[in-house]
Amino acid sequence: MLKIDDFASFSRVATPFYYYDIDLFRRTVDKVAELSERTGIHVHYSLKANSDRRLNEMISSRGLGADCVSGDEIDFAVSCGYNPKKIFFAGVAKSDKEICQAFQVGIGAFVVESLEEIEIVSDIARRLGRKAPMSLRINPNIDPHTHHYITTGLYEDKFGISDRSFDEAVAMVKDNPYIDFYGLQFHIGSQIMEVSDVVKLECEKVNEIVALFERIGLEVRNIDLGGGLGIDYDDPDGNPIADFETWFRTIDENLVRRPDQTVHVEPGRSLVAQSGSLITEVLYVKKGENRRFLMVDAGMNDLIRPALYGAYHKIENLTAHYEDGDGRGCRVYDVVGPVCESADCFGKERALAKSHRGDRIAIRSAGAYGQVMASRYNMRPFAPSVYSDRVTEAPRKKNYFANED
Ligand SMILES: *Cc1c(COP(=O)(O)O)cnc(C)c1O
């Protein structure tokens, strides 16, 4: 069950909102910073997973860098205190405007994803009288055994440069006066659970490709392994911190690196997912023909992962636990939102405590790709952030019936 220090105060906050467990978040970031120091593997947080300002300020203050995928993410990262030299800019289709934004800020590296993009970035560098620090994103054609929407390292995916184009890429980069070649980047997908197997395979492939590039004449100063470490959506309380130990150790043991080569990873999901929950309230318990619907006041516009990927999130009735001591017994519900789409469903046939109108529900492990993917579909407002150590400062539920008491 989601831990809350003061449920009475928590239950007066207006729903829906994203609740961030600051203590867990701090411990997660500390763990990563500590492993980074121990192994010498640099960490750039992939900002697209969660762009909450306070969380990002906490990450940047631990000295981590940022991996960005848009011009506005770059500007936002700088405003959150990330060192511009520790910002990389990835993304398959960077616009001219975004490329210029990145030059203006003075980022550490462009991670370039196609031959066409090498040409454009080098041309813009020439016109600005600059030299572009550049890594090439490689499509290593390996399968991370994850959901097909979140693999990125196979030939059929749109990402990266594949081995068929290596010679041409090298020819374009080598001796180009507008490019400062930096290294190679590999990001093979997301929610990788068989860490030791998949990452070992990835490292072996990366070793081969780095050696190949150096043989054909480019010095690889930086090796960037991307993100992708998975988290436990089934048991957020049992595994609140992702298996960073195994991830760093597997890389440390399997990646060949010279003392003059730097290594990066870019975790997104694993740094933020377990610290966030979407908190919502039951509006109606509707008895359908052959199922019971729990209709809550958060919708797919607040958290789209179940609708988009069929993603699983653990769902809990907090009121039944904190107010009634888990004495209510169980029922099976489909937990659905108010948006006019059948896909607006957070979970089908979930066994939950018998639920009533007004109960507080937590949708767990929602810190990554949750709030950042929110929309205002149906003109619904954005759910705000509420931090565990500042619950009393959060907007309160309104009482529309003051005349009644
Ligand atoms: C999305 C992304 C990441 C982070 O992936 P997670 O699965 O959230 O860890 C890292 N690098 C790049 C280039 C990405 O696009």
Your description of this structure?
With 405 residues, this protein is of the alpha/beta class. Helix 2 packs parallel to helix 9 (244-254), helix 4 packs parallel to helix 5 (96-105) and helix 5 (96-105) crosses helix 6 (115-128). It contains twelve helices and 16 strands. The protein is elongated and about 80 Å long. The mean pLDDT is 94. The strands form two sheets. Strands 1, 10, 11, 12, 13, 14, 15 and 16 form an eight-stranded mixed beta sheet that branches. The protein has an eight-stranded parallel β-barrel with strand order 2-3-4-5-6-7-8-9. The protein folds into two domains: 7-18 and 274-393, Beta Barrel (Lyase, Ornithine Decarboxylase, Chain A, domain 1); 40-267, Alanine racemase (TIM Barrel), CATH 3.20.20. The chain has helices at 7-10, 22-39, 53-61, 71-79, 96-105, 115-128, 166-173, 195-215, 244-254, 269-272, 305-309, 318-322, and strands spanning 17-20, 41-46, 65-68, 87-89, 109-112, 132-137, 179-185, 222-224, 262-265, 276-287, 292-296, 315-317, 330-336, 345-353, 360-363, 385-387. The chain is 29% helix and 21% strand. It binds pyridoxal-5'-phosphate. Pyridoxal-5'-phosphate is lined by residues 46, 48-49, 67, 69, 90, 187, 190, 226-229, 266-270.
CATH topology description of the largest domain:
TIM Barrel
CATH H level of the largest domain: which superfamily?
Alanine racemase
Q: How would the global form be characterised?
A: elongated
C-alpha-based Rg, rounded: 23 Å
Distance N to C terminus: 34 Å
Q: State the oligomer.
A: single chain
Low-confidence runs (pLDDT<50, min 5 residues)? none
Q: From N to C, what is the helix and strand string?
A: HEHEHEHEHEHEHEHEHEHEEHEHEEEE
